[in-house]
Amino acid sequence: MKILVTGATGNVGRMVVDELLARGATDVRALTVNPAAAGLPGEVEVVRGFLGRLETVPAALAGVDAMYLAPHPATVFEVCRLAAEAGVRRIVDMAGAKGGTWQVIEDGVEASGVAYTHLEPGEFMANSTLWAAQIRAGDVVRDAYGDVVNAPIAQEDIAAVAAHVLLCGASGAFTGSADASDAFVGASIELTGPEALSRREMVAAIGRALGRDLTYVELTGDAAAEHFSGVMGSYGQWYLDGLAQLAQHPQAAVSTVADLLGRPAMTYGEWAGRHADLFR
User: How far apart are CA 133 and CA 231, in angstroms?
Assistant: First the structure.
């Protein structure tokens, strides 16, 4: 079974490649903008291209059975149509919560008619690098909505689930057999970390990983808007609006990662410990 990983040098796509190889996949193709600089393992077939440049996509899709689809909203309908025309039999996409910013990814996949599995992760633990510059500079973190609760997920766990779902299809689900892996066809899989935490608690966890006491300072109103615009540019207000929604609808943790993989999902404390150098 030939598996194509798009966005193969991105934060999640690169991990999907590694997870597939670790699980015994022997025919992995990686789509990347710069093969020479990608540093992908030698056993991976590397193809130059980008989902945003549609003329590069058909060659990447030739002979592919299953595809991990990185989120690129601008061309998702066209890419998935090309996948269907190329004979791809399964798409595992990374999207997000139903009805949210990434809904267009799921819409494009479903419009293609190819069998699919949607992965719907919540916020990435890695988004905490929004605080990295402040933490490197001192012990005070200025932020907003400190008591808002969600259950962020490690990108490593998203990649592991993607590889698991892709490889389960190898035993027959692509052809519609009565295999247990058929459960993934047409499924939408919500993914979170194992615990729901407030932003204050996340900052404290980073402090523990660094052996430092960090002070959380709550920003509101114009001060919050100005701060996030400075950190995130045009996405600052969008991010603040998302936090405001979370204040009304806190995200609970689900056990999907552990249920599928048979091992615990990475906790936020573990993630902070593994990635402490990001904040030093």
Answer: 10
